[in-house]
Amino acid sequence: MSLVARDKAVKEFNNDPSVQVMLMSLKAGNLGLNMVSASHVIILDLWWNPTTEDQAIDRAHRIGQTQAVTVTRIAINNTVEDRILALQETKRIVVASALGEGSGELSATRLTEQDLGFLFFGVKQEHI
Questions:
Q1: CA–CA gap between residue 3 and residue 48 (Å, rounded)
Q2: 97/36 same-domain check
């Protein structure tokens, strides 16, 4: 979708009461959009870095939002999605650490070999 078409779709979603659903990928929805008409955010394509999801959710939490916003993450047990959620938790701990609440030994900006091994094989491994 072109930027012009995307902007038109967002404007219709925010201003036309007959438009009740907006579907977009996580990466398309995490930057530069104002979705204050949204009251539900459903994440289907989990991302290993939780800040990417947080930014997409924040499109609905903007100045002008008049409703409570409900966020739902859809994940299937015993799949890579479970492991992505576990990695997200690790990354959140890293952020807390960087803010002085932990040891600061982990990296939030890159997937390590151990992270990739965990995603693909489901086990934390010291060396792959």
A1: 26
A2: no
* Tokens matching residue 121: 């094989």
The answer to whether residues 46 and 84 touch, using CB atoms and an 8 Å cutoff, is yes
Q: In this predicted model, what pLDDT tens digit does every residue of 53-105 receive, in sequence order?
A: 888 888 888 888 888 999 999 999 999 998 999 999 988 888 777 766 655 55
- For 40, the domain range is 3-73
Same domain, 50 and 68: yes
CA gap 43, 52 in Å, rounded: 11
Element at 43 (helix H, strand E): strand 40-43
Q: Alpha carbon 70 to chain centroid distance?
A: 14
CA-closest candidate to residue 115, choices 89, 97, 95: 89
